[in-house]
Design a protein that fits this description.
Blueprint: H1 5-14, H2 16-28, H3 39-52, E1 56-60, E2 67-72, E3 80-86, E4 106-108, E5 111-113, H4 121-136, E6 144-150, H5 160-166, E7 175-178, E8 190-192, E9 194-206, E10 212-213, H6 223-234, E11 235-236, E12 239-240, H7 254-261, H8 267-274, H9 285-291, E13 296-302, E14 307-308, E15 311-320, H10 326-339, E16 345-354, E17 357-358, H11 366-377, E18 381-383, E19 386-389, H12 393-398, E20 403-407, E21 421-423, H13 424-441
């Protein structure tokens, strides 16, 4: 490869302050898609930053938040790599739980604490810094680049699927490359070839026209208990009991099973991080984590002080694996609730959903990315399907492109939670990774 790790490291050492300030500047721009706070200002800053790197940028009026499309290089003899990231973040949440201002990057013990420090303003800026490296060292960019930076990923990528469907012919590429998410619990970077889908469903139960004093608990119906009974009927132990829930799931291929067999044990690392032993150990751990859907209760709300609650709600977060379709799963949940024949129980689909995705294990681009990842990190793992969700299906299902993610944030980066953070060392490795990946993809090898 033309770019050596030592050359890249020397460059980053010389420009350390500049590289950190770029990253910190992006973090300081609030961009909370749940409320829209700071989105226009952050988008404008990012557009200017891209154009300063010579990238031709179009700001597309996707609703509710703008989409930035950037292009650099149009050499037909070179591969075209589509780089994806999102510039929006989750709300900070309870400020009392943060140890510092969530929108002012604060360095403690070599880690940067701030909302978006890991998810995903770090990889977004690392990708742009890779472009700067080629420009400032006088090296020719080895591939054509197509950037897609959205501002609504944390709210389900609203508007983006329709835009991609309409502009498929304008977004031709050979491969989609991005980095979004933490390492494996064993602290190895993850090369992911797919992502679980996601759908959020709200269950609401109403039994009376208002809450009543708890003395009536023996004789009046509690919405909270009814909700608990409904949830128990939907899932018991490891088994989701909704008819047809598991229909259509694509079984793991032999090649995917072989990848899972090589993954390191993670049970002890999870126990150390979260003080909770996994429910499934040994050979069942990764097939369940990566190959099975989830049926998680995010929250349950009901009642007040000393009452029989008249209303209760729960939010279901269901992560889907290849072969499942979000709207079909929603219909199965609706049908199950309808079978209870209780007019006081309603089910609604929350805004936004994601389809599951998969890039074949034998994609010709994987070996080059494996080589680079090994050179920078030493060891790594490959997930046929990551256990979390991402809008990966936009590339595989809509644009019909292979998509490969390299996840390199700290294993305990606490994305979406208070005190989200990223190690500075990991950030600089992420810059080096992008530089080397572009170099490898631009070589004669796929």
């Amino acid at each position: 490869m033309a770019e050596t790790i030592s050359e890249i490291q020397d460059y980053m050492d010389r420009n350390r302050s500049l590289l950190l300030e770029d990253w910190f500047s992006l973090i300081r721009h609030k961009s909370v898609s749940a409320t829209g706070e700071g989105i226009p200002e952050c988008c404008a800053w990012l557009k200017d930053r891209m154009e300063a790197s010579g990238i031709q940028v179009t700001k597309e009026p996707v609703e509710p938040y703008p989409l930035l499309i950037g292009r650099l290089g149009q050499n037909p003899s070179k591969k075209t790599v589509l780089i994806y990231a999102h510039y929006d973040v989750k709300p900070a949440g309870d400020l009392a739980e943060w140890h510092s201002d969530p929108f002012e990057p604060t360095v403690r013990d070599g880690k940067v604490f701030a909302r978006g420090s890991a998810d995903t303003k770090s990889p977004l800026m690392a990708h742009l810094e890779a472009v700067r490296y080629y420009q400032e060292t006088g090296r020719s960019l080895p591939v054509n680049l197509l950037f897609v930076f959205e501002g609504c990923e944390e709210e389900g990528s609203t508007g983006l699927p329709e835009f991609l469907q309409e502009h498929k012919n304008d977004l031709e590429a050979d491969l989609v490359f991005f980095s979004d998410g933490p390492k494996d619990p064993s602290n190895r970077p993850i090369i992911a070839l797919g992502a679980k889908g996601d759908i959020n469903i709200r269950l609401s139960v109403k039994t009376m026209n208002r809450h009543v004093h708890a003395r009536y608990a023996p004789v009046l119906p509690s919405a909270a208990w009814k909700l608990v009974e409904i949830l128990h009927g939907m899932k018991q132990g490891d088994k989701v009991l909704i008819p047809g829930f598991y229909d259509g799931i694509l079984p793991l291929s032999d090649a995917e099973k072989h990848l899972l067999e090589k993954l390191p044990a993670s049970e002890e690392a999870l126990d150390e991080m979260y003080d909770a032993k996994p429910q499934h150990l040994g050979k069942d751990f990764y097939p369940r984590l990566l190959g099975q859907p989830t049926f998680n209760i995010c929250w349950i709300r009901s009642g007040a002080n000393g009452v029989v609650p008249a209303e209760a709600e729960a939010l279901l977060d269901i992560r889907l694996v290849p072969g499942q379709k979000p709207l079909e799963i929603f219909q199965k949940v609706k049908d199950y609730i309808a079978s209870l024949d209780d007019p006081g129980v309603t089910v609604t689909l929350e805004d936004g959903y994601l389809e599951p995705s998969k890039t074949p294990v034998d994609t010709p681009f994987l070996p080059a990315i494996e080589t680079v990842t090994r050179e920078i990190y030493g060891s790594y793992v490959i997930y046929p399907c990551r256990p979390s969700s991402a809008p990966d299906y936009l590339w595989t299902n809509i644009l019909g492109l292979p998509a490969i993610q390299v996840r390199w944030s700290d294993a305990d980066s606490d994305n979406h939670a208070p005190n989200e953070h990223l190690s500075i060392d990991e950030y600089f490795k992420g810059i080096a990774l992008t530089i080397k990946v572009l170099d490898a993809l631009g070589s004669d090898r796929p």
